[in-house]
Structure to design on (245 residues):
């Protein structure tokens, strides 16, 4: 289409996002960009697609993340017995505060004698992360237009399927962050206790991400998981390297 804008032309016939072995050691799979994204641009617009006559000042991207808040942050949060001492699904939950899902520090004794956290044989995922924040008091669009200066303040632990769950983290190579003022909460007219649909879906949607530096085609997308997460991960990586030597 010769009438498409450059962004739309760039998006045609391409794989915008793909999984491949991570460029980071011992990180499993990583999330990679199938096209280049300039600095300070919406990751969702470039990698999620737009449509003819798209106006980025008015229209939301075709694809955004949603968040599923954990109403009970302690639900199945305690470690299991046996090899899987930390439930695997919790690895993808962004905690309200570091270790708010489970206090998995060196004082938490799984065995006797106690085993230091950096040599545990299981992955605690995002339990120590604070690089992204999610809130329970996001506004719907009408309320946001009436209160444009409102800033949500009720932090919540949340599962965020999509980019927020798939991208790995690195303190210095991070190339994207969250756009906090684009997320919304809307039950689409459903009201408790009158409608059965309340609670059947999450009202929190419209979560977008922004590039914090130029992202070249084929580059791994990375967040900054936060200082505490990186400190513990560096200790773990140092132990793995020493053990292999």
């Amino acid at each position: 289409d010769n009438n498409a804008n450059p962004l739309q032309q760039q998006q045609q016939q391409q794989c915008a996002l793909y999984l491949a072995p991570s460029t980071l050691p011992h990180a499993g799979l990583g999330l990679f960009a199938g096209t280049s994204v300039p600095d300070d641009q919406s990751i969702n617009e470039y990698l999620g697609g737009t449509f003819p006559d798209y106006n980025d000042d008015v229209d939301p991207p075709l694809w955004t993340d949603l968040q599923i808040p954990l109403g009970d942050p302690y639900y199945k949060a305690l470690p299991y017995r046996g090899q899987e001492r930390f439930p695997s699904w919790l690895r993808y939950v962004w905690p309200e505060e570091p270790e708010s899902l489970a206090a998995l520090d060196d004082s938490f004794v799984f065995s006797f004698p106690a085993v230091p956290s950096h040599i545990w044989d299981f992955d605690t995922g995002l339990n120590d992360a604070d690089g992204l924040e999610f809130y329970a008091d996001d506004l719907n669009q009408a309320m946001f237009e009436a209160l444009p200066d409102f800033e949500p303040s009720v932090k919540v632990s949340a599962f965020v399927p999509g980019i927020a769950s798939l991208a790995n983290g690195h303190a210095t190579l991070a190339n994207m962050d969250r756009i906090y003022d684009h997320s919304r909460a809307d039950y689409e007219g459903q009201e408790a206790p009158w409608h059965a649909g309340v609670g059947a879906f999450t009202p929190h949607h419209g979560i977008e991400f922004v590039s914090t530096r130029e992202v070249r085609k084929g580059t791994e997308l990375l967040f900054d998981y936060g200082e505490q997460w990186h400190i513990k991960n560096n200790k773990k990586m140092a132990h793995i390297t020493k053990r292999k030597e």
Observations:
- Residues 77-84, 108-113 have pLDDT under 50 and may be disordered.
- The helical segments are 6-11, 43-48, 141-146, 163-166, 227-244.
- Residues 144 and 150 are 7 Å apart (CA to CA).
- The two ends are 56 Å apart (CA to CA).
